[in-house]
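R.M. (postdoc): so does anyone remember the format we settled on? I'll just put the structure tokens first.
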């Protein structure tokens, strides 16, 4: 596996699964050490930018040329600004990551960080070998699978709630109705936000969420007796939305079950 393949097939998907945004392959003449650029918003809402240098094979402390090249890449990455793909303004990175599918052999990390040129950045450089990258990837895929599995359970429960509401609206005599479950939706949608490959299911989840919120608002403000004997237009609209929720729920169940099989 060469650097291009390792970057595109392993590192970029990993960064997206971890929730980073604006992940882009930047390899080229004017990359200035930034093979991959990616960003995130911190807990205060500030946008932070990061860069990664991607290598294949072991990185050894005795390889002076290889070490010096990495020091050049790190220094250039911090000192040379880049253009934000959204705002088009020049920005600088906050942290730098070195990924390799091999290992950092001997004292390679120590030699890199002890270089005088990296003194201002010594606490802003991180190293990930092949094993760590694999563990990160497995951990993030596991998290997505757990969210998807929880969402399956919510979907099935919401179908039951929708069927109860349908019965109620048709005056069959049921006098109990609950609110739709939405607990799992926000973290799942957020997790899928930066995944272009899962865009279709994310968009469908967002539409589904809108119907649930809308219906819950109506149900929570409607005494049971009002649903049965109240405004007909309100009842009809709730019935239409309920049927849409059932339809989307079944579609999402099919999507998620297929997705779980390939993850």
């Amino acid at each position: 596996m060469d650097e291009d393949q390792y970057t595109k097939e392993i590192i970029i998907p990993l960064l997206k699964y971890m929730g980073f945004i604006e992940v882009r392959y930047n390899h080229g003449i004017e990359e200035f050490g930034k093979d991959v650029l990616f960003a995130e918003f911190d807990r205060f809402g500030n946008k932070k930018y990061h860069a990664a240098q991607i290598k294949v094979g072991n990185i050894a402390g005795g390889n002076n040329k290889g070490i010096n090249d990495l020091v050049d890449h790190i220094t250039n990455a911090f000192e040379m600004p880049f253009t934000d793909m959204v705002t088009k303004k020049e920005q600088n990175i906050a942290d730098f990551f070195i990924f390799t599918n091999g290992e950092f052999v001997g004292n390679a990390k120590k030699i890199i960080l002890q270089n005088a040129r990296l003194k201002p950045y010594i606490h802003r450089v991180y190293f990930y070998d092949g094993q760590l990258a694999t563990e990160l990837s497995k951990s993030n895929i596991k998290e997505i699978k757990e969210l998807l599995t929880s969402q399956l359970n919510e979907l099935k429960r919401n179908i039951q709630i929708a069927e109860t509401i349908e019965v109620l609206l048709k005056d069959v005599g049921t006098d109990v109705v609950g609110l739709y479950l939405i607990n799992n939706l926000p973290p799942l949608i957020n997790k899928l936000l930066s995944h272009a490959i899962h865009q279709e299911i994310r968009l469908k989840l967002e539409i589904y969420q809108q119907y649930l919120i809308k219906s819950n608002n109506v149900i929570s403000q409607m005494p049971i007796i009002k649903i049965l004997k109240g405004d007909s237009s309100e009842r009809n609209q709730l019935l239409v939305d309920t049927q849409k929720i059932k339809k989307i729920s079944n579609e999402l169940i099919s999507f998620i079950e297929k997705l779980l099989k390939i993850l």
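R.M.: ...and that's the designed sequence above, right after the tokens. Also worth knowing: The CA atoms of residues 126 and 183 lie 35 Å apart. The domain at 3-128 is CATH 3.40.1350 (Trna Endonuclease; Chain: A, domain 1).
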